[in-house]
Amino acid sequence: MADVDVVVVGAGLSGLICARALRRQGRQVRILEARDRPGGRLHSRATALGVEVDLGGQWGGRDHHHLAALIQELGLGRFPSPYDGDGVFHWRGVRRTAPLAERFADSLLFFQPSALGLPPREVSEALRLQAALDKLAREVPAIAPWTAPNALALDQTTIAAWLDGQQAGPLARHVFRWFARVGGSGGFELHESSLLHLAWTQAVAPQSASPEDWLVEGGMGQVGRRLAAEQADALRLRAPVEAIAESAAEVRVRHSGGEELRARAVVVAIPPALRLAIQFSPPLPPAWTAWLQRAPMGGMVKVLALYPEAFWRQEGLSGLGIGDLSLLQLTADSSPPGGRPGILASFIAADAAAHWQRQPEATRRAGVLSDLASYWGPQAATPTELIVHNWNAEPWTRGAFTSFLTPGAWTAHGPIWRQPHGRVIWAGTEAATRWPGYFEGAVEAGLAAAAQAGAWLGG
User: Fold this and answer.
1) DSSP E strand stretches across 188-340
2) Into how many domains does the chain fold?
3) Is 374 a domain residue?
């Protein structure tokens, strides 16, 4: 007799949502989490200024309907992301302020192109190639990107090589580098992934759909804590899963605490790269292992700078900063509606993150403060509190905010992507076909896995 109906591996948002849905079906569930806390990439902390800030994800999008419904069900409030005022575009040592475009499709990375004061030919080229990417994205099927027109050629061509073929200039390359590093795609460089993968990310998680549209009052980290509190009786922390062994009648799950659970099905809701640390019996098929080996986590460091107030608002600025500075790829106003305290969220991604984390602490801090000052002036260099969270150093994440695929992986191994392995079902935001890499994708994948497990278990 099985101990439980389903073991859920991972207490991030996707795993917690899956377990919650299964329990509402009347199933017996055990959740095993490797960390000493639930939530995964839902992670927040208190600050000296008396507010909580999100060290992981924090935004919801305009059509993140599952996430919005969850926030409402949990009794949490939302407020619009503050984008009023001009943004800052930093390019080749020059700081430019410009209004944001009404539509992303008409913008140069959110900005009104004509207001940036950049050479018209360079702007025209960047917009042309951005439109070409958008056209490719419309041709890529969300569920089966390997079936897109010319999929093999697109998947064997790195983004960098494609830009070389287009004779792209520095500004156009910067646009594509932004998409790869922080535009919802996963913290990678242009030479590390294929044009097919980049087009797929914009097909399933398009920047044009305003994925950073709203914030949660008190921070998104509350979501993980509340979902975990609802299921405290089923949750085991500090329990990294070491082995999953299947037989015709059941599946046995062993974690490092020495406990072995018997279940009728297992949902694995952790990033692809971490699944390689689990010993599966029978072993995963070679195609599955090959796919996992080609799905590394992106490199990402999150920076939060806190000030007594959002001083940039007094200057008619929105807090949105994008540029070619050495570290910070993006800044965004994450302050409460009243602007007290003022909070700027920033990101160091991909190779910049790899280089930064090798530096002495004083050098790392000085570099971050220098970039903040370049975007927002001298006042930005003296925050009341500077919080830096290196997701690459988290052993149970190894990067953020999602994984990416190396060239050739989709067309060689893509069909295995979401297929169950016997009684093992996959979840996590990386398993979503809509908004992967976002909390919306995590919720959707968790609900899908619960439905799949429920169908497997039957009445």
Assistant:
1) 214-216, 235-236, 241-246, 251-255, 260-268, 279-281, 300-307, 317-323, 328-333
2) 3
3) yes
